Amino acid sequence: MKKIFIILIALSLSATSRSQDLELLLLAKNDANLLMRNYMSPIMNGMMNGLNNGWNHTAKTHKKFGFDITINANAAIVPNSEKSFLFNHSDYQYLSLESGSSNINTVMGSVNNSLIGIKIPAAGNTYKIAQFTMPDGVGDDLPLNAVPSPMIQASIGLPTSTDISVRFLPSVNSDDVKANLIGFGVKHNLMQYFGPLDKLPLNVSVFGGFTTMNTTYNIQNNSALSGNNQEATFKLNTYTFQALASLDFPLITLYGGIGYDKGSSDLKINGSYVLEYTIDGTANKVTETVTNPIDLDFETSGARATLGARLNLAFFKIFADYTIKDYNTLSAGIAFSFR
Questions:
Q1: What backbone phi and psi angles, to 5 degrees, belong to 49?
Q2: N or C: at which end does the chain have fewer Cβ atoms within 10 angstroms?
Q3: What ranges do the domains of the chain cover?
Q4: Which of 9-18, 170-179, 305-314 has the lowest mean pLDDT?
Q5: How many Å apart are CA 104 and CA 116, to the nearest integer?
Q6: What 8-state DSSP symbol labels residue 201?
Q7: DSSP state, 263?
Q8: How many helices (H) and strands (E) does the chain have?
Q9: Span 122-146, pLDDT tens digits
């Protein structure tokens, strides 16, 4: 999780080898927010879609105080339409396309050759102060061009044919990054209400889950920029509601479900930043301070449908499933399940 978040911040701020030009992007105010929203949206939406997956590999609930421990990974596949965006000049006040393609690759795309110019109005005129090449995407470096989200989860059975689940990742608490992720889920088996039908290998249940992630990255420790309270924050909340069904045989389980997912996230760059630039064609140096320059929010929601299978080797389980939704998601993992 720490590596994923550092990628998010490094691509949207100045901690790169071209930091001087990218820092000046912060002067573009609303334009900077729009450009970074277009560039970052696939990875933000991918994380929200991924974290709503991998909760269940059967509709069956544990017996009283039975439990399982599951390790899984979700891969939210970025649609082709989200791998690039069109740079529309009329949408920007301070930014312009100097050269290269107006069809710019997003963070989940590939190589970029688009040169962006920054022009800031001063004293009644517009001055060019910098230009930079859009950062390349990382999609080609990721399997399936998908946003990954690994997870550890534990579930325990209650007396009412109900499972309580907790999912988490180990917290990160360093001088640079503080991060935590936790989620809670409840699954209730409905077969108990259908009399003798509960003797069949068929199980039907309902499930609701919530996951939250909070991360803070200390920019001031990793930047030569003057200023105060420089940090980036990333917050994410996801919700899923599902109806599940499974055929649970001794050796294999076939499972599926339909439901609805929702997610929201925000990425902020806070603090004050003292930026110095030279007006193009002159020796004039200008210093300007910007405060809380980036504030991005993202939302996703929609229906989902899942099909999967699990191999049962006594208490050891191996499972995989595929979910059709906004960002189709592949989930796979292992579980140690008792009772």
A1: -65, -40
A2: C
A3: 2-338
A4: 9-18
A5: 11
A6: S
A7: E
A8: 3, 17
A9: 666 777 777 888 888 877 777 788 8
Q: With beta carbons less than 8 A apart as the criterion, state whether 193 and 205 touch.
A: no
CA distance 275 to 27: 8
Cβ pair 194, 178 in contact under 8 A: no
**Which residue is it, tokens 């999609």?**
139
Q: Tokens standing for 1?
A: 């999780």
Q: Using CA atoms, how far apart are residues 336 and 316, in angstroms rounded to an integer?
A: 5
**Res 50: pLDDT:** 92
Tokens representing residue 63 in the block = 């017996």
How would you classify the pairing of strands 294-313 and 252-270? antiparallel
Amino acid at 206: V
Which comes out higher in pLDDT, residue 256 or 128?
A: 256
Question: What tokens were used for 166?
Answer: 């907790």
What is the C-alpha to C-alpha distance for residues 329 and 319, in angstroms, rounded to an integer? Answer: 14
Residues with Cβ within 8 Å of residue 98, at least 6 apart in sequence: 115, 116, 117, 131
Q: In 171-225, which ranges are continuous DSSP H helix?
A: none
Residue 93 main-chain phi, psi, to 5 deg? -100, -40
65 burial level (CB within 10 Å; 0-12, 13-18, 19+): exposed
* Look-up of token digits 């039907």: 204
For 257, residues 6+ apart whose C-beta sits below 8 A from its C-beta are 56, 59, 207, 242, 243, 244, 245, 304, 305, 306
- Indicate the pTM of the whole model: 0.85
Residue 339: half-sphere exposure toward Cβ, Cα within 13 Å:
13
Residue 35's nearest CA partner among 128, 148, 132 is 132
CA 142 to chain centroid, in Å, comes to 14
What 3-state DSSP class applies to 7? helix
| Token duo for residue 91 | 């949408």
